[in-house]
Write a structure and sequence with these properties.
434 Repressor (Amino-terminal Domain), 53% helix, 287 residues, 12 helices, single chain, alpha/beta, 7-stranded mixed β-sheet, Endonuclease, Chain A
Length: 287
Amino acid sequence: MSTDYQQAREALGARLRELRLYAPGGRLTGTQLAQRLGWPHSKIYKLENGQQTATMEDLHAWAQGVEQPGVFEELEARLRGSESHIRSWRRQLAGGHRPVQESWNTEVSKATMIYAWEEAVIVGMLQTADYARHMFLRYAELQNSVRDTEEAVRARMKRQEWLYQAGKKLHVLMWEAALHALICPPSVLAGQLDRLAGVIGMDTVELGIIPLGASLKIPTANGFWILDDRLVIAEDWHAELWLDDSDSVAAYMRVWRRLQESAVYGADAHSVIFRARQALNGRSANP
């Protein structure tokens, strides 16, 4: 996927170079265009060679600089086409976590069937507000992003309304490690584990947990979500991948099915949660 994205970025760069070389007023050198735009010459070079991702503002300025303002719509479409696959956290979190959560809410609202896998944290749609709050604070620290924590928490909690709509189904797989990860204070994790146990038996939720000692068909990896058969959202440290081609959706569904072979459900899943809760009590008693 990164290769596809880089190819799209290089293709956009080649188009930018073409516009510079064939400007209506005559060929522009990189230095001349940089002077017009008030940019360092290195930025022209990086954009044209696919070494830097253009912003919408960059593309608008470029179209003006090469005296072809009408080409901006084409450039915008090219950029949006590449970003529909890779959405960097730097860009997404420029306005805070709430807008990201609202984008998720929009996509989730369209879905009837959702498959989710998380290996290190509790699945977002099953999080308590306290747990979600600590998650947003941790990521805000990591990404040095806007701290709109309470707005983001409310947006994530609103998404959970989906769980109470007839005809919906959330299929969740989690690795047991997520039940022990102290990304929050022990008291918050305790409440979160109680919440998790409480969803077992809901007709809109199927919760599977892969015990730490289970035999694995494939290695565990980063979390991902499959929305119906139309979209996969996978998370990495630098970005989210939004994949809507049928081959990618099918590949992630195969991964989910392989992981599911190692999971336990119902009373067995409840037992795994109970053990984690008991272990947490022991940690609290012996800091």
